[in-house]
Specification:
Chain A is about 0% helix and about 50% strand. Chain A is mainly beta.
Chain lengths: ~110, ~120
């Protein structure tokens, strides 16, 4: 199994600002994933973060809006840039080998 | 394309009773993995149980068991002896070899355990 920590756990941000979310895994994993979950909905994959290469973004998500870093095999960050109220969501990271384990999530509210 | 379907948006169960949460999937991959996660109101996603497509026996983890019917492409979660703490959202997910380890999630089922 893998233990994943994520911070911040929650934040309230002003429109137009940016927030960087950090995700730490207690073991080395090849791929990490970033998801967004809007209220009452399922998880939507934002991007896959591979160490040593650029992240792979899903349709509807772009690097300028959601830049991702993956400096090593245990850490990744997701930045939500130029935020608007529509970005208010839970953001979750995951990692693991066969099974994906999730961090506790970041609850973001944009005013 | 991979697809996961959960047709029960909400379920109720009496405390100490068993409940089955439905999940069907669609894939052309011969090798895949099926997962169930629990998401309480706190928002964390908790891994519950895993079933591999080549596993001969249904997976079990404590009070959780997975009723895997490969021909029907279903992977229902059975929770026995429900407890109040089981009230949460439950998500079925699938991973295939050609998905780059990406998981596909269903829309979830909200389970409420009634005392």
């Amino acid at each position: 199994s893998a233990v994943i920590s994520q911070k911040p756990s929650r934040d309230i941000c002003q429109r137009g600002t940016s927030l960087t979310i950090q995700c730490q895994v207690d073991s080395q994993v090849t791929m990490m994933f970033w998801y967004r979950q809007q209220p009452g909905q399922s998880l939507t994959l934002i991007a896959t973060a591979n160490q040593g290469s650029e992240a792979t973004y899903e349709s509807g998500f772009v690097i300028d809006k959601f830049p991702i870093s993956r400096p090593n095999l245990t850490f990744s960050t997701l930045t939500v840039s130029n935020m608007s109220p529509e970005d208010s969501s839970i953001y979750l990271c995951s990692g693991g080998r066969e099974t994906q384990y999730f961090g506790p999530g970041t609850r973001l509210l944009v005013l | 394309a991979q697809k996961i379907t959960q047709t029960q948006p909400g379920m109720f169960v009496q405390e100490k009773e068993a409940v089955t949460l439905d999940c069907t999937y669609d894939t052309s991959d011969p090798s895949y993995g099926l997962f169930w996660y629990k998401q309480p109101s706190s928002g964390e996603m908790i891994f519950l149980i895993y079933q591999g497509s080549y596993d001969q026996q249904n997976a079990t983890e404590g009070r959780y068991s997975l009723n895997f019917q490969k021909a029907r492409k279903s992977a229902n979660l059975v929770i026995s002896a429900s407890q109040l703490g089981d009230s949460a959202m439950y998500f079925c997910a699938m991973r295939g070899p050609n998905t780059g380890n990406q998981f596909y999630f269903g829309t979830g089922t909200s389970l409420t355990v009634i005392p």
